[in-house]
């Protein structure tokens, strides 16, 4: 069964990387209750302390679009917006298999 994945990085203003990490991890916690969100992973690269990466796997593109209207996501944007310096989207993917567990 195929799934839809979103892969992006968000860069915080200088010195605000850890704050941005906290916001994205809060968002990830909110996604635990979302049935059609299969994966929401937040990561960092120690060489770029103000850049935070997020990788999401959804049932389909429509499920991802619907998530953008959720309160948890809207609250994240409102909190994080003042410290966001930029975003970079990588190609969205169609997931054909694999594993994600923690």
Write structural notes for this entry.
With about 100 residues, the chain is an alpha+beta fold. The protein has one domain: Alpha-Beta Plaits, CATH 3.30.70.100. It has helices at about 15-30, 60-65, 70-80, and strands at about 5-10, 35-45, 50-60, 85-90, 95. Strands 1, 2, 3, 4 and 5 form a five-stranded antiparallel β-sheet that branches. Helix 1 (about 15-30) runs antiparallel to helix 3. The longest helix has 15 residues, at about 15-30. The radius of gyration is 13 Å and the shape is globular. The two termini are about 20 Å apart.
How are the secondary structure elements laid out?
Elements: E1 3-12, H1 17-31, E2 37-44, E3 51-58, H2 61-67, H3 71-80, E4 84-89, E5 93-95
Antiparallel strand pairs: 1-3, 1-4, 1-5, 2-3
Keywords:
102 residues; alpha+beta; Alpha-Beta Plaits; 3 helices; single chain
- How helical, in percent, are the residues? 25-40%
- By oligomeric state, this entry counts as single chain
Strand content: 25-35%
**CATH topology label:** Alpha-Beta Plaits
- Low-pLDDT ranges: none
Which shape, going by the Cα principal axes?
Answer: globular
Note the gap between the termini.
21 Å
Mind summarizing the main beta sheet?
5 strands, antiparallel
Count of the domains? 1
**CATH architecture label:** 2-Layer Sandwich
Compute the average pLDDT. 92
For the record, what CATH class applies?
Alpha Beta
Radius of gyration: 13 Å
| Helix-strand topology string | EHEEHHEE
Structural class, from helix and strand content?
alpha+beta
The count of DSSP E runs of length 2 or more, i.e. the number of strands, is: 5
- Summed up, the helix count is 3
